[in-house]
Amino acid sequence: MKKQLLFIGVIALASFTLLSMSLMTSLQEKPWEAPAKYQKMKNPELKNADSDQIGRILYSKHCKSCHGSKGKGDGKKSASLDTKTPDFTKESFKNQTDGTLYYKTFIGRDDMPSFKKKITDTEEQWLIVNYIKSF
């Protein structure tokens, strides 16, 4: 009788674990769609002598630890995240609208934090978007 209860307990625990892993995987793979107003948002295409340099500095300060120095999603913190860090060099990333990139960068979701309060200057926000598009 004890062996049967132990067996049932092990099966129940294994089932619960598999179900939990399945739910976590499905949540992680959920597409991240930006609201329509952001998808249509226009990039002011800010260009001055220092814009690329400022974008790189801001990226290094706020993004590099997860997204990596080359934007491949291989930063030193990326392995500790629950969600996959995107590769900015892939076409699937590059095909997103500028407004979508803006939304994902500054609104955030799950492991991607919101930067609305950390980077409040609109020009700096767009300089980061423009920099990550350059990978």
Please explain how this structure is put together.
By secondary structure, this protein is mainly alpha-helical. It folds into two domains: 1-30; 33-133, Orthogonal Bundle (Cytochrome Bc1 Complex, Chain D, domain 2). Helix content is 53%, strand content 0%. The chain has helices at 2-28, 36-39, 51-62, 64-67, 91-94, 98-106, 122-133. α3 crosses α7 and α6 crosses α7. The chain is elongated, with a radius of gyration of 20 Å. The relative contact order is 0.16. The mean pLDDT is 87.
Order of helices and strands: HHHHHHH
SS element count, helices? 7
Report the span from N to C terminus. 63 Å
Shape: elongated
Please compute the radius of gyration using only Cα atoms.
Answer: 20 Å
- How many structural units, i.e. domains? 2
Question: Roughly what percent helix?
Answer: 40-55%
Share in β-strands: under 5%
Going by CATH, the homologous superfamily of the largest domain would be: Cytochrome c-like domain
- Quaternary organisation: single chain
What structural category arises from helix and sheet content?
Answer: mainly alpha
| CATH domain class name of the largest domain | Mainly Alpha
Gross CATH architecture of the largest domain: Orthogonal Bundle
Q: Please report the total strand number as a whole number.
A: 0
Could you tell me the mean pLDDT? 87
Largest sheet: none
Write down the CATH topology of the largest domain.
Cytochrome Bc1 Complex, Chain D, domain 2
Low-pLDDT stretches: none
